[in-house]
Amino acid sequence: MVITAAVNVTSQDAGVADRLREVRNANLTAWEARLRDAQRTGELPERVNPRALAGYFATIIQGMSQRSCDGAGPEEPAEVAELALAAWPGEREG
């Protein structure tokens, strides 16, 4: 909903656009914090940049949301999610 509303804000609703941006950025910050916690506990490799990974997944989620609004059926976001999860950083061998 935050994504859909964000693309439909007019200049007279600048306050709404600002608030939506704040919500999106707060989500990104929360995801980054969770990923940093995962790094501390060993769930996420040290070589991973938590901010970049949070941004990557925010972009995927926002894009999936927009594609759904544009008429993508349930199979498309499911396939995109599978691809995104395949990019999840794991421990590298060697």
The total of beta strands comes to 0
What is the global morphology?
A: flat
The profile of the biggest β sheet is:
none
Distance between the terminal alpha carbons, to the nearest Å? 43 Å
Rg over C-alpha atoms, rounded to the nearest angstrom: 16 Å
What are the segments in which pLDDT stays under 50 over at least 5 consecutive residues? none
The H/E string reads HHHH
| Number of contiguous helices | 4
Structural class: mainly alpha
Query: What fraction, in percent, of the residue positions are helical?
Result: 55-70%
Mean pLDDT: 86
- Percent of residues in beta strands? under 5%
Overview of the structural elements:
- The structure is a single chain.
- The chain is an all-alpha fold and 94 residues long.
- Helices cover 68% and strands 0% of the residues.
- The protein contains four helices and no strands.
- α2 packs across α3 and α3 (50-69) packs antiparallel against α4.
- The chain is flat and about 45 Å long.
- The mean pLDDT is 86.
